[in-house]
Amino acid sequence: MAAEEHAPTSGEYIQHHLTHLSNIESSAPVNFHVVHWDSVVFSSVLGLVFLVLGLFAARRVTSGVPGRFQAAMEFLIEMVDSQAKAIVHNATSRKLVAPMALTVFIWIFLLNAMDLLPVDLLPFLFQHISGDPEAHLRVVPTADISVTMGLSVGVLIACLYYNIKIKGAGGWAHELVVAPFGTSKNPIAAVALGFLNFIMQIIEFVAKTVSHGMRLYGNMYAGELIFLLIALLGGAFTFTAGGFGLALLQILAGTAWAIFHILIITLQAFVFMMLTLVYIGQAHDAH
To answer: Is 219 a catalytic residue?
Structure first.
């Protein structure tokens, strides 16, 4: 006799939703052969959505009274541009940095907003389309550390680029060994300080990059987990007073958390954008 199917436990339900659609199964904490296809697809699709929205706004722009969509886009552009002017003082650099900051803000907001969809909606549709009832699918790319760290590494590369462009290769190399502790006229002390300065600079770059990506990942992972816990209330539904009470609690809790989460996803996108501007602005400053 075949084993009877049983409903997943709370732990199994959460674990299933926290597992990516990957090219290979791997239990290793770090495996560079694993590709999270769900993160790749959703990030790419939402990036395309951003491009379409931008083209739509550009083609409908008018010098007269703007519509709501144009007004919203103009507000975002002016907000990002004012922040870029306050942080990055090189006008030439801002021609690239300001659009990049705008892209970072809107793209990350769209990635974060996937958390507002019902947690079982897209996984359920994917399972039926694929014909695999056990298929995995995570729909929030910024709850994937590989995505957030990829974004932060991209910011690091931009910082290294502007360090070399603004200060020159020699000037930046000199800065790496004289800041933050300075140097000395004594040759032995100068070598020791140079080595210490270099180590501190590398630690600073690594710390900025890791904290930049981990901050976004940690907040979005926690938000996703809370939505899963709220969804479990519906899984305990029965045709009893307690069951209806849990269903009502799920609706109220889900609605309240979704409304609050709108603030979180916007704030996290804004913080990531601001740190991007700050780090690139620091790359323009001489020590």
So the answer is: yes
Query: For residue 100, is it within any domain?
Result: yes
Is position 201 within any domain? Answer: yes
Q: Is residue 4 part of a domain?
A: no
Cis preceding-peptide flag for 180 (omega within 30 of 0): yes
Residue 12 lies in a domain: no
pLDDT in tens, 87-122: 999 999 999 999 999 999 999 999 999 999 999 999
CB atoms within 10 A of CB 43: 21
Residues 6 or more apart in contact with residue 235 via CB below 8 angstroms: 7, 10, 13
Is residue 41 scored above 70 in pLDDT? yes
**Average pLDDT over all residues of the chain:** 90
DSSP 8-state code for residue 24? S
Domain extent, residue 189, equals 36-54+66-284
Structure letter (DSSP) for residue 21: -
Distance (Å, rounded) from C-alpha 7 to C-alpha 5?
7
The alpha-helical segments, DSSP class H, found in the chain are 10-17, 37-59, 68-87, 91-113, 121-130, 145-178, 187-235, 241-284
The whole-angstrom separation of Cα 204 and Cα 279 is 11
Catalytic residue among 23, 44, 184, 211: 211
Query: Which member of 39, 163, 197, 219 is catalytic?
Result: 219
Number of domains forming the structure of the chain: 1
Q: What does the pLDDT look like over 227-270, one tens digit per residue? A: 999 988 876 656 676 667 777 888 899 999 999 999 999 999 99
